[in-house]
């Protein structure tokens, strides 16, 4: 079994990093593969308040938390490689991962490739992504300094990101298809107390547009009355920003037809086992009731522990 790892971990978000930490500490011959920067979605979060054990008088950001996790993984000896995975072979005693830089084999595999932002779903959306439409406030807030900004969504992420944007934009308006927010009450209290935050209830974005590829117009429909409001950028500004935070889609296309999926999410038991022996899943790509940093990390720890037992049997 030369050149065959005990476990390959796909993805370096909180789930993958926790798996790498536990695999390294267990002295497994482990390989963690990530195509980009560590952290996944949490790497773009400006503030974290609900990760257990952090100091309440010290601000914690996604990048700072992930940096410490990555350092732990390195310290305990988990192998790392930067590569883009193009295919996987999950059946059989030896699992194979095909990347642009090479092929990797292991006795077991942990799928921790996370999820990505769900599109807003309006007409012409693709034309304006990166030209007024964004899905990451931490990444792009500074591009909208002193402009008007609109945020689609009503959950925790949408409201938190909207509040973050008020530190840059002249005015921020949350567009939500319901008549009340879904965010936690503590987050709502902060939002309603913010003088730069406004709300458009019972509304969805139907269409966006603009000249020369810059977002400058938007049609918003009231779902109860069907009344359409046309929003145009201030003449002096020439554009406005539109951020989408309406959920995520699992990054599981590579696994279709090989393991059990439900609405795109990987189905596992409580031990992170899929329906294929030696294949485990952890984090936001897994079918579960709560997707948070703490649950992703827990998933990764369980998956690595179960992968060790699988390899020892």
TrEMBL record:
PROSITE patterns in UniProt: PYRIDINE_REDOX_2
Residue intervals of the FAD/NAD(P)-binding domain: 5-300
Cofactor note: Binds 1 FAD per subunit.
Keyword tags: Disulfide bond, FAD, Flavoprotein, NADP, Oxidoreductase, Redox-active center
GO molecular function: thioredoxin-disulfide reductase (NADPH) activity
The keyword Zinc is annotated on this UniProt entry: no
An annotated GO cellular component: cytoplasm
Catalytic activity line of the entry: [thioredoxin]-dithiol + NADP(+) = [thioredoxin]-disulfide + NADPH + H(+)
GO biological process: removal of superoxide radicals
Pfam family membership, one: Pyr_redox_2
Cofactors named for this entry: FAD
Enzyme Commission number: 1.8.1.9
The family this protein is said to belong to: Belongs to the class-II pyridine nucleotide-disulfide oxidoreductase family.
Summary of subunit composition and partner proteins: Homodimer.
Protein name as it appears in the record: Thioredoxin reductase
UniProt lineage: Bacteria, Bacillati, Actinomycetota, Coriobacteriia, Eggerthellales
């Amino acid at each position: 079994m030369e050149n065959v790892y005990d476990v390959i971990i796909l993805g370096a978000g909180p789930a993958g990093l926790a798996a790498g930490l536990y695999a390294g500490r267990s002295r497994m011959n482990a390989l963690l593969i990530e195509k980009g920067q560590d952290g996944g979605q949490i790497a773009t979060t400006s503030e974290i308040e609900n990760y257990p054990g952090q100091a309440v008088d010290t601000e914690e950001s996604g990048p700072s938390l992930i940096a410490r996790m990555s350092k732990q993984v390195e310290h305990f000896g988990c192998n790392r490689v930067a590569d883009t995975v193009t295919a996987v072979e999950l059946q059989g005693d030896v699992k194979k991962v095909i990347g642009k830089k090479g092929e990797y084999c292991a006795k077991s595999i942990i799928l921790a490739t996370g999820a990505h932002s769900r599109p807003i779903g309006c007409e012409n959306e693709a034309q304006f992504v990166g030209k007024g439409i964004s899905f990451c406030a931490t990444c792009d807030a500074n591009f909208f300094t002193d402009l008007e900004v609109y945020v689609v969504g009503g959950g925790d992420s949408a409201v938190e990101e909207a509040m973050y944007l008020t530190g840059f934009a002249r005015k921020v308006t949350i567009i939500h298809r319901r008549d009340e927010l879904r965010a936690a009450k503590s987050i709502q209290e902060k939002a309603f107390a913010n003088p730069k935050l406004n709300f458009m209830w019972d509304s969805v974005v139907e269409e966006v547009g603009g000249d020369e590829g810059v977002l400058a117009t938007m049609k918003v429909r009231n779902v109860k009355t069907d009344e359409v409001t046309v929003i145009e950028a201030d003449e002096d500004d020439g554009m406005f920003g539109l951020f989408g935070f309406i959920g995520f889609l699992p990054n599981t296309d590579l696994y279709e037809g090989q393991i059990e999926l439900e609405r795109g999410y990987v189905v596992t038991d409580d031990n992170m086992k899929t329906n294929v022996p030696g294949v485990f899943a952890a984090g936001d790509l897994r079918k579960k009731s709560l997707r948070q940093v703490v649950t992703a990390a827990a998933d990764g720890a369980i998956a690595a522990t179960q992968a060790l037992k699988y390899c020892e049997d």
